[in-house]
Amino acid sequence: MKCSKCGCREIIAENGEYKCAECGKSVLTPGDKYAKAAVSVRFTFRNIIGRHFILLAERGDPYRLTVDCPQTMPEEFIRKMTAGEWNRFIDKLFCKAFLHEWENGPQPLSENSWDITIGFEFDGKTEVFTRCGNSDFPPYWKELMSAVRPLFKEAGLKF
Predict the structure, then answer these.
(1) Cα–Cα distance for residue pair 79/94, rounded to 1 Å
(2) Hey, what's the torsion of the CAs at 100, 103, 106, 109, to 10 degrees?
(3) Which of these, 46, 70, 81, 82, could form a disulfide with 52 (CB 3.0-4.6 Å)?
(4) Separation CA 146–CA 159 (nearest Å)
(5) Model confidence over 37-67: pLDDT tens digits?
(6) In a 3-state reduction of DSSP, which class is residue 131?
(7) What are phi and psi of 115, to 5 degrees?
(8) Torsion of CA 88, 57, 137, 144, to 10 degrees
(9) So where are the chain's domains?
(10) Rounded to two decimals, what is the model's pTM?
């Protein structure tokens, strides 16, 4: 376990909550609520040589995966996702990477930056959640990459 704000691995249990010993942030709230409500994910990464990679996954009929890298791919890679694939992907984002606990970094620049936008449906209301940053990568970045990297690889992109 590590703090989603500062990356400290010293987490203290207090009154049924977990708090970071370094910064005092409450950490690791369950991600199940967010995982169940997620309906779309858009992840964009812009690297230092000016290429950008876009992943769009959508819940629905059919579940849909779109991967695009305009500088490399002649056209988008699109395929249907199964409900199981969608559920595993979303589970990694919220129950392994704790995306709902991430704090926003600086607004993305054109190079070496990232952003992720998640659409939710809570009780019939649509909400949007965006997190972004530049070369500053949050403590659970590797867990996010373990969720998105295989999808880029399937589309033929080394990411």
Answers:
(1) 23
(2) -30
(3) 46
(4) 11
(5) 999 999 988 877 767 888 898 988 778 888 8
(6) strand
(7) -155, 150
(8) 10
(9) 1-28, 31-154
(10) 0.83
